[in-house]
Amino acid sequence: MVTHAHYDHVGSIKALKRAFPDALIVAHKIEAGNLRAGLSPLPRGTMWFSRPISWLGCQIFHHCVRFDGFEVDIEVEDNLKMQFGSTEIEFFCTSGHTAGSLCARVGEQAVFAGDSVFHVLPGCFYPPFADFPEYIVAAWQRIAATGAGMIYPGHGRPFSLNNFIANNGRF
Ligand SMILES: [Zn+2]
User: How far is the CA of 153 from the centre of ligand 1 (A)?
Assistant: First the structure.
C-alpha cells in the first residue's frame, strides 16, 4: 500500500516492484495521477516550525518534488476490504494530510496510518504538514473507529489506540 504521493514515502517503490513484480501496488484513486507522473506536491505547514519549512521548500522546489513514477495496480475510492488467508485487510481513506491519504487496518491488530498521524514527539500525534488540516480530526476518528490495537504512523514509533485516544481527548 502507498499511503500517499509524498517523495519520502514512495522513493523505493519502482525498485521494489522490479524486485517483486507480482506484488500489487494499492493507493487511493486521487493520488494515482501523481504517483504515475512521479510528482510530490509539497504540503502546507500546520505548526510554527513547519510553516517556514513548507514555504522555503515551495520556493526552492516550485511546490513540487519529483520521484520515479510507477503504475498503481489497485485504486481505492473510499474503502476496500481484501482477505489474505485468515486476515482481513481494510484500506480506507483519511483525507487531511493529503486529499487521498490511505490507511490500512490489518485484522484487529494494527492500522498503518501513513502521515495522518505522526509520532516523532512523545504524546504529539498531529501531522506538522497537511493540505487539509481541517479534516485531520475526522481522519483520526476514522482510525479510532477501527478499534485496532496498535497504530503504526508514517514517522516515529508505533503506539496503542488507547494511548492515542488518551492523549487526544478532543476527538
Ligand atoms: Zn506526507
Answer: 11
pTM for the model stands at 0.90
Domain 1-171 has what CATH class? alpha beta
pLDDT in tens, 149-162: 999 999 999 999 99
What is the residue extent of each domain of the chain? 1-171
Please tell me the distance between residue 24's alpha carbon and the centre of ligand 1 in angstroms. Answer: 21
- String of b and e for 71-106 (b: at least 16 CB within 10 Å)? ebeebbeeebeeeeeeeebbbbbbbbbbbbbbbbbb
CA–CA separation, 47 and 54 (whole Å):
10
pLDDT in tens, 85-124: 999 999 999 999 999 999 999 999 999 999 999 999 888 8
Ligand 1 centroid to Cα of residue 105, in Å, is 19
Ion ligand 1 neighbours, Cβ < 5 Å: 6, 115
CA pair distance 123, 158, nearest whole angstrom? 12
